[in-house]
Amino acid sequence: MPYVVAEPCINCKYTDCVEVCPVDCFYEGPNFLAIQPDECIDCNACVPVCPVEAIYPEEELPEKWEHYTQWNEYLANQWREMGYNITEKSPPMEDAEEWEDREKSEEDILTWDV
Ligand code: SF4
Ligand code: F3S
After folding, report:
1. pTM check: above 0.85
2. Position in ligand 2 atom list of the atom nearest CA 15
3. What phi and psi, each to the nearest 5 degrees, are found at residue 55?
4. Which of 9, 39, 43 to mutate to test the pocket of ligand 1 (most atoms within 8 A of CB)?
5. Is the CB of 43 under 6 A from ligand 1?
6. FRET pair for 57, CA 20 to 30 Å: which of 9, 40, 70, 104?
7. Structural domains in the chain?
8. Alpha helix (H) ranges present in 1-114?
């Protein structure tokens, strides 16, 4: 069961998670990261380092975020194909702190122009 990045990551993108991932399975979009499920080895290292508690093992995802399993697979594959593997920490989104408490949804996730 792979790990999944859920809604709290949107527009925050703190990227602490990528630094601890032993298999570099995070892929980066403009305002969200996704985990490629076939590459993730379920080590749990990323969970405690995310400041907004955005990452869950698939089987422990809160029900309201269950659809993020599909989103991670879909987006990670898309971004992998485009070459957006991320392995080093980078600055968070400009308004990251404000977005921690704001209402958001998967509709806010952006992707790159093709
Ligand atoms: Fe990477 Fe481990 Fe997190 Fe999977 S659980 S994304 S392998 S750090
Ligand atoms: Fe997102 Fe948390 Fe990683 S905000 S980029 S899942 S550290």
Report:
1. yes
2. 5
3. -110, 135
4. 43
5. yes
6. 104
7. 3-88 (3.30.70.20)
8. 16-20, 68-81, 96-100
